[in-house]
Amino acid sequence: MVLSAPVPVSDGGRAKISSSPQDVSSFEFGKSPATRTETEMSKQMSAWGRDKNRGEYKPLTHVVLTTHPRRPSPYNVVWGAPTAQERGPVIATITQPKNRNVIGTHNGSYSVYRSIAVAAGKMDPYFRPDLHNTAPPVLIPPSPSWFDPDKIVSMDPWGHLVLDGFEDLLSKEVDVRPTIAITKAHIQMLELVEAIDKGRLVADGKILNKDGSCVVTKAAIEHVWHLPGVAKRFGVSEASLRRCMFEQTGGMFPELVTRSDMNVFLPPIGGQTVYVFGPVEYCRDPSKKCTVRVHDECNGSDVFGSDICTCRPYLVHGIEECVRTAQEGGVGVIVYFRKEGRSLGEVTKFLVYNARKRQEGGDRAETYFHRTACVAGVEDMRFQELMPDSLHWLGITKIDDLISMSDMKYNAIVDSGIEVSHHLFLTF
Hints:
The longest helix is centred in the C-terminal third of the chain and has 17 residues, at about 310-325. Helices cover about 30% and strands about 15% of the residues. It has 16 helices and 12 strands. The strands form 3 sheets. The protein has a 7-stranded mixed beta sheet, sandwiched between helices. The chain has a 3-stranded mixed beta sheet with strand order 3-7-6. β11 (about 400-405), α16 and β12 form a beta-alpha-beta unit. By secondary structure, it is of the alpha/beta class.
């Protein structure tokens, strides 16, 4: 099947691009259904650690330090191709080494925990997921930006369409996995109850309920980097990018320097979550008002309300504006990046806190970035150049209200080709 014409089809809550000759969502992974015993299927569905089905890790092969171009994957990745089949699957799984066509593996930094689970005998090292009933409940079809290899370089735009886009490979038991998951949910923040009580927002029972809960569509996105495109964004050579990433990760990924034919990398870093308020299809409709806030993670403030950070009020204000826009017939989008402490990490962040508070004259705004650079060697490592990709994935071409106080974010979005009508600075 070729993914080209976005024709929504209802399938029991599952959004599909088009009808398929065979629905692979019922396919059982691992062995074919005909060869799997009832005991094996039962074991597949149970968690090894909880039901005592655990055993010593016994590798079946020798240690492979790196792979070589003379044994390439049979599946190519053509970034920016017009269909899923022409683009090719992103195969980052380790269950079928000969099929791997990218550097790295799934789950970002959590892949380390998977290795512990395998070493501890709590997970089958050759486990393959049963993707039945995991397809998105809403349709995010291809947009023109998907077919421009320079527009989206840090995520796989086809990552949520694995079941439809690569059903032929799945039926042949090729271990292709999603890098994007979409679901519907309610979010609830106490400040929204206050906003209702004070009349800033009105509970309409559709977007916002009386208890302050909001109806949202949310998407979790893993990073999938097209190395030539990432290098171009930062104005560096791909060779320099590859070498620096290899060296600065302690040689974690030798294929960065040994496999120049592999140009896709799944980095072991935190991903991003997109929250959409209102119909997702409105993101692709420039006639609908669109409000956006791009928010970088601040666990201390966002979750725990730490008094040394002021990030949560900005996030809440962005959510309020997104709710208001959705209620007015538009769409609101919050993009939440896992970039703790300006991508410097929380340990560095807390060290900077101490340095700021103990410096001569106390904590002062004019020395804010200087104290960070003294500890981290750089003021900020978020580098917003990659940030607009998820907006292009949604099909956004125009933002009416950008809720942000960051010129870096504004410039990155505008430079990527998205029109911003109003850049609303935040002051509290």
